């Protein structure tokens, strides 16, 4: 486990627990935190022992969004400097969105601005019922630009128009309603719910899960292109079926035993 860092990582039983670790700053995203989070994701992606990444926040807040001290400094920076600063968040969201292994956001508290980008870029999201969320950017005279490609993919144009324009505070229930959360639970059930989802993930074949993530992204087509996409997906399936992982999966199923990748 790494500590004394704006991001901590602990790996056990195939699960990497990655935590934003600035509770005194409500886990705000400054340059150092984004850099550390990017490094943690790269390390987890390369670690064969890691099957799933769980992202959370230290303390009782998930993430307050951009660091206010840095945001104030950026008001006096040049356009080029602001671009370089904004790209720090973009790089992390891209890494999280394209991560080759399953990701689970354990949303243990409030999340604002950039935090909603982190949530949107994760595969599965479980949030505590008491948490509050908002796209606050327009109240500062800016827009949720960097997070928008990831958020729109989950909530669609209608919800984005409302909450990007109003900056209304959203409950965890609203987050689930618009598609940014899969489960909302009382705080005392958060770990058990996340644990159950992780248990289910660990029963799957890691190579197939990576392919499934790519499938979800690539299979989304305009209606006129769905036939072409279906042929492409059939080709992908055929290639996977002859690989060792699929052979083991079928053999285990018919032999009524656990597949070799199972950790339980």
Approximate shape: globular
Q: Based on the structure given, which CATH architecture of the largest domain is correct?
A: Alpha-Beta Complex
Mean pLDDT: 91
Number of strands: 9
CATH topology of the largest domain: 2-enoyl-CoA Hydratase, Chain A, domain 1
- CATH first level of the largest domain: which class? Alpha Beta
The unreliable regions are none
Q: Secondary-structure element order, as H and E?
A: EEHEHHEEHEEHEHEHHHH
User: How can the largest sheet be summarized?
Assistant: 6 strands, mixed
Distance between the termini: 23 Å
Assign the structural class, choosing from mainly alpha, mainly beta, alpha/beta, alpha+beta, or little secondary structure: alpha/beta
Task: Tell me the strand percentage band.
Answer: 5-15%
Radius of gyration: 19 Å
Task: Write the topology of this structure.
Elements: E1 7-12, E2 15-20, H1 31-46, E3 52-57, H2 68-74, H3 79-97, E4 103-107, E5 111-112, H4 114-121, E6 124-128, E7 132-134, H5 148-166, E8 170-171, H6 172-178, E9 183-185, H7 190-202, H8 206-218, H9 226-241, H10 244-255
Parallel strand pairs: 2-3, 3-4, 4-6, 5-7, 6-9
Antiparallel strand pairs: 1-2, 7-8
Keywords:
three-stranded mixed sheet, 2-enoyl-CoA Hydratase, Chain A, domain 1, 264 residues, alpha/beta
Question: Would you mind describing this structure in some detail?
Answer:
With 264 residues, the chain is α/β, with parallel strands linked by helices. It is 49% helix and 14% strand. Strands 1-2-3-4-6-9 form a 6-stranded mixed β-sheet, with helices on both faces. Strand 2, helix 1 and strand 3 form a beta-alpha-beta unit. The longest helix has 19 residues. The mean pLDDT is 91.
């Amino acid at each position: 486990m790494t500590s004394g860092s704006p991001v901590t990582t602990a790996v056990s039983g195939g699960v990497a627990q990655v935590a934003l670790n600035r509770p005194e700053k409500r886990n705000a995203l400054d340059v150092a935190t984004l850099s550390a989070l990017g490094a943690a994701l790269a390390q987890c992606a390369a670690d064969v022992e890691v099957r799933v990444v769980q992202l959370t926040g230290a303390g009782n807040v998930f993430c307050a969004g951009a660091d206010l001290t840095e945001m104030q400094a950026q008001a006096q920076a040049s356009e080029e400097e602001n671009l370089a600063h904004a790209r720090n968040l973009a790089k992390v969201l891209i890494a999280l969105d394209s991560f080759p292994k399953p990701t689970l956001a354990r949303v243990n508290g409030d999340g604002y601005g950039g935090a909603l980008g982190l949530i949107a870029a994760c595969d599965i999201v479980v949030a505590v019922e008491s948490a509050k969320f908002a796209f606050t950017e327009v109240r500062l005279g800016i827009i949720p630009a960097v997070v928008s490609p990831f958020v729109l993919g989950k909530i669609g144009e209608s919800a984005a128009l409302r909450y990007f324009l109003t900056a209304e505070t959203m409950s965890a229930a609203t987050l689930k309603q618009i598609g940014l959360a899969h489960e909302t639970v009382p705080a005392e059930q958060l770990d058990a719910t996340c644990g159950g989802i992780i248990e289910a993930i660990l029963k799957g074949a890691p190579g197939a899960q990576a392919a499934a993530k790519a499938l979800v992204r690539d299979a989304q087509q305009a209606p006129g292109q769905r036939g072409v996409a279906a042929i492409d997906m059939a080709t992908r399936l055929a290639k996977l079926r002859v690989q060792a992982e699929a052979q083991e999966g079928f053999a285990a199923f018919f032999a009524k035993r656990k597949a070799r990748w199972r950790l339980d």
